[in-house]
Amino acid sequence: MLDEIIILSIVFLSIIFQSIIGIGVLVLGTPILLILEYSLIEILSVLLPFSILTSFINIFLINIGFSLKKINRFNLKLSLDPELKYNFFYICLPSLFVGLLLLKFLQNYLNFKIIIGSIILLSLFVKIFYEETKLKFSNIMKKIFFFIIGIVHGLTNSGGTLLTIFISLYKKNFKKKSRLNITILYLFLALFQYLIFIFLFTIIPDFIEILIIIFLTFVGSIIGNFLISYISEGTIKLIINFTAFITAIFLIIGGLNL
Questions:
Q1: What does the alpha-carbon distance between residue 240 and residue 7 come to, in Å, rounded to a whole number?
Q2: Which of these, 3, 20, 223, 244, has the minimum number of CB atoms within 10 Å of its CB?
Q3: What is the tens place of the pLDDT at every residue in 162-186?
Q4: Domain for residue 82, yes or no?
């Protein structure tokens, strides 16, 4: 019972975090639960439904400009840059399937704590180094980057970090435009991942678990979208960087059994 309370508390905080920055349930939940000695398969079965529903709810809340003071007229905008859409759906999602296949056959041979911790640290370094730079990527580089995101996400559940970095490097209006784009793409990323996961591992939630998912996700999403109105972009970035760094260090230390 205590373990379930701890897991649900971690998930609830991750839902709030994802509602603020676009990612969080998988990016934060995965390393934390790995530290608590859960297997990656167990983690995926718990976190993916929460992540999917959180992204779905946030698409609507972002579009209505949600706050407790007012709710603007609903105006759903799911328009994505055509090139971004092509690279995501035709390159990233197929490579996600490859990553999940690698996970199925290599799960007993890989140290996921070290792999995920290293990916988080590398992503954090790139993010900080290029924070104020609006980079230009060639078409080939964009395709390679999306291919890597898919592989990494399928294998380690950490592709959301790379996706956020890639979009935020050339989209500067984070609170609205980039956050919405990240949320939309992250929804499809997690949804496609979950469908493949169910096919490969045949693990699905029962009725009580579904009710818990709906309740926690709805409440957490409301809180997150309310809080973002009072948090500056600088503070959000600081929280992301600090959390990612501490989590990565603990993962690597745990993986090395120091």
A1: 21
A2: 3
A3: 777 777 665 554 555 667 777 888 8
A4: no
**Residue 9 burial (CB < 10 Å; 0-12/13-18/19+)?**
exposed
Which amino acid, 168?
Answer: S
A 10 A CB-CB count for 104 gives 15
Give the pLDDT confidence of 29-86 residue by residue, as tens digits.
888 888 888 888 888 899 999 999 999 898 888 777 654 444 444 444 555 667 778 8
Angle between helix 112-129 and 159-168 (nearest 10): 10
Cα 164 from chain centre:
8
> What dihedral do alpha carbons 41, 107, 99, 174 form, nearest 10°?
50
Domain assignment present for 143:
no
d(CA 92, CA 12): 28
Residue 93 inside a domain? The answer is: no
pTM: 0.79
d(CA 81, CA 88): 11
| Residue 72 DSSP code | P
How many structural domains are present in the chain?
1
